[in-house]
Amino acid sequence: MSTPTMDDAAKVLADPTAYADDARLHTALTHLRANNPVAWVDNPPYRPFWAITKHADIMAIERDNELFISEPRPLLSTAAADDYAKAQLDAGMGLRTLIHMDDPHHRKVRAIGSDWFRPKAMRDLKVRVDELAKRYVDQMRDMGPECDFVTDVAVQFPLYVIMSLLGLPEEDYGRMHMLTQEMFGGDDDEYKRGTTPEEQMAVLLDFFGYFAQLTAARREKPTGDLASAIANGRIDGEPMSEVDTMSYYVIVAAAGHDTTKDAISGGLHALIENPGELDRLRADPSLMGTAVEEMIRWSTPVKEFMRTATADTTVRGVDIAKGDSVYLAYVSGNRDEEIFDDPFRFDVGRDPNKHVAFGYGVHFCLGAALARMEMNSLFTELVSRWDSIELAGTPELSATTFVGGLKHLPIRYSLR
């Protein structure tokens, strides 16, 4: 096997603060794509891994889900957090969501909620989503002429949609959002509950405590919502395990709104920073579909997933040993010069747009259609009603190696 090549630029991938600094992150990723697209990263407190920064390599690894599997390291976390998570799972606790699983178990668990996100379900939901989009734009107008778009709108709209789909009471929405911030914001000073794995595990236990009560209620009396489908889900004729059941709720409730929040806020920021593209979209609303895809590419809420090689192999001529971890840098893949014409240009009409923001292959995002529909509804309402919009302060990105985006976007606007 070849000796791993060290490249200081790749260390940013194992530095949560780098994701709060677009210029720093993209400078490093541009260098890696050109000079070291399969880069060895050894940056404690994280265990070493190979950083995969080219779109084609990311896609190839995603496609080969037998050679590259999710377990035991589906995402980047510290060695201490990895060890603690494994110990918890060995003890029958911890988190094991769809992103942690491999086929055939992954496919069976995924099927429990998949009908809720199919095209027919989205068509049935669209009227309600359009109504909610109008409600939140009305609220935005009424609170004007300034707001923090992230906390006042981008969080609230998708949170309401996914909580309604689950069938949770509205008074619990705020609690779900707070726990989501603490879980995905474990590296961010504004959001994290603590610094140790035990303190961060407490967030998960709060989630589990809530959903354990919900499961008992939905098993006793199903109510025809997504929470009831999860509570009564069966694998090979047997009830889903408690770990898998609790974890299913967590991934739907948390990722089901937080990633969309990041794409919505990142999309609005891009429109403000590119007024020509905003004018183009206002003049031609038929571009909304491609505009939404471009917002998703531009913001890339899920920064990475990781896979582990099940056998010795090579990627772009670099030897990858059995048991080695590879880091799929979606942020880099979505700015790959070989795939995207002028990738650092925000283009509401970009077509084709082969972004990897939703992943690819068997782990393609379960809620992708819902996220697209929510964004289409909200921006259709927004673009048709604003007379002016500009920044009213400095946008702030969250520090994270996994899921994140803007945490504050102060804007000044006029809405009809």
UniProtKB/TrEMBL annotation:
GO terms for molecular function: cholest-4-en-3-one 26-monooxygenase activity; heme binding; iron ion binding; steroid hydroxylase activity. It comes from the Bacteria. Keywords: Cholesterol metabolism, Heme, Iron, Lipid degradation, Lipid metabolism, Metal-binding, Monooxygenase, Oxidoreductase, Steroid metabolism, Sterol metabolism. Its cofactor is heme. The keyword Oxidoreductase applies. GO terms for biological process: cholesterol catabolic process. Pfam families: p450. The keyword Heme applies. InterPro entries: Cyt_P450, Cyt_P450_B, Cyt_P450_CS, Cyt_P450_sf. Pathway: Steroid metabolism; cholesterol degradation. Belongs to the cytochrome P450 family. This is Steroid C26-monooxygenase. It comes from Mycolicibacterium sediminis.
